[in-house]
Amino acid sequence: MMRCLLLGHDHRFTAEGETMRWHCARGCGTGGEKVYPTASDARRYARAFDRKDTEDAGKRAPLIGLFPLRLLRAMRGRRDA
Question: Does residue 31 carry a pLDDT above 90?
Answer without folding.
Answer: yes
